Amino acid sequence: MSRPNTLEHHWMPFTANRDFKKSPRMIVRGEGMYYWNDRGDKLVDGVAGLFTCAAGHGRREIAEAVGRQMMELDYCAPFQFGQPKSFELASRVAALTPENLDRVFFTCSGSEAVETAMKVALAYHRARGQGQRTRFVGRERAYHGVNFGGISIGGMVRNRDSFGVGLPGIAHLRHTHLPQNRLVPGQGDFGADLADDLQRLVDLHGADTIAACFVEPIAGSTGILVPPKGYLERLRAICDKHGILLVFDEVITGFGRTGSAFGAQTFGVTPDMMTMAKAITNGNIPMGALACRDEIYETLTEASPEGAIELFHGYTYSAHPVACAAGLATLDIYRDEDLFARGKAKSPGFLERVFSLKDLPQVVDIRGFGLLAGIDLAPSERPGKRGYAVLNAAFQEGLVLRVTMDTIILSPALIAEDEHFDRIVEVLRKVIAAS
Prior knowledge:
By secondary structure, this protein is α/β, with parallel strands linked by helices. It contains 14 helices and 15 strands.
């Protein structure tokens, strides 16, 4: 496929548009672990799309399922009408989630799943007579999507500094990126006590004002911040003590990325609600979801009169039939190829190779868990310049990365082999050393 005649009309998201259009990084095809650019060069995909394509690119099974569904039922309104595949997919997702998180609400993205979780939390507390619980707690350096609710509880400053203060009534925990855990694979030994920030907020604002606490099991978009040992368990205990809902944002950590279906199972901590997206359809069709504890759903439904709408919320494309078909085909692949277990087995070799880069003078820190890794580079001249240079150089050398400021993020697909890890690290060593 040739390059488009003009690049002027598309305003690209989270992109340096002017710079891109001077020297485009154009991808035209994907298969397995690889992309091809518009010059025909083959590139290793080091980030599985955008944490999305856990089963690799070009999965014919998903394409065929999508094609069949479009000819059978392309769309039906999700308000007051249903279609079979949404119920089937909800059951399949519920079979993967932790026990009792069995009620699944479909959205079109992770951002929408977070907004849905915020609304459900408010509605739930109101339905049980605690409507004064309107405050949300997020965390520094967290990413919860780009809608106003998500950027408000999120803690990535650049994502909101152009848009005002965000929603009121939001408080933030400190992040868990501690120097004591520098260059430690997996969970560090220091920082469980940072969860006590939630107790401090309870003491300051009152437990009966806080609706929910949102955290990513592993903070992904900010550079793979792995929770210290005991941290998530401590958050869970504080939430239980004070009637606060604990929400895990598993948009990145879901569907095998940490070695289990979800990070909640990997870390042995069950939230009250859990958002997901990205790999739910292997990135093929936009879709997200919120899984809720049964008691939350039952409280809301039983508080409404028979025949009345219980939750005034939804999206035109909630549980879109084509997205549901893609989701079902994706879950078949994960099951039939045992990809969650495969990703867990491949993790040690992946992390060993990534941590071998610690001898480079430009590398400040490396973190990793499962098939996720973050590499902090020392800034050059101004923050973000070195990271962007590495992104460009890696593309020219045949590797697609994710970079946030001066942090490299890796999340290879669950189908990756050792040879792919070797190539990723080979290119990284070359371009980091030259940066």
